[in-house]
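Ticket closed. Logging final result for MOR1A protein.
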Amino acid sequence: VGNSSVLICSPKPNMTMATWKINPKVGGPCSLGYRADQNKTDRTNCSDSINWKFRPDRDPTLEIRQVGRAHEGNYTCEVVVAEGSFHTPYYLTVLVPPRPTLYCDDQGNPVCEAASGKPAAQISWVLENNSTPKEEGHDDGTVTVLSKFTAYSTNVTTCIVSHLAGNWSKSIAC
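Final structure:
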């Protein structure tokens, strides 16, 4: 989320047409097209954040700026030459970093939470304990993971949140 994504579509010699067909999981389809005989580009229902990265007559690569969850879905590039059509399919998965927090509950137990990440984050503690993380799925496809530290006789505990979008750790004394 928030970064740019580039989907490569290899140009072919004597390309007559290039088309990106985009079917996101949320919202309607959109397309970008280029016709060499008219040296013309066309776009249908695509947001401003989706565009050709370069001049499509030279390189039909697609760029998505400020990627959001709504961009997730199927992307297919079709390049047409005299010999036929060449398709390059992609499925764009959008990673959502969780919002990590570490706090003490009413009983004085450390609680580590990784809210609204996609996919679900992994929570671990520097010292072993017998906690089983609880996961809560949300309608937008994100997951909140919550883990409570249940070991005793320690003053400072450290929570580690691991996620494909980055890792986080913090210590607390309850």
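The chain has two domains: 5-92, 99-172. No further action required.
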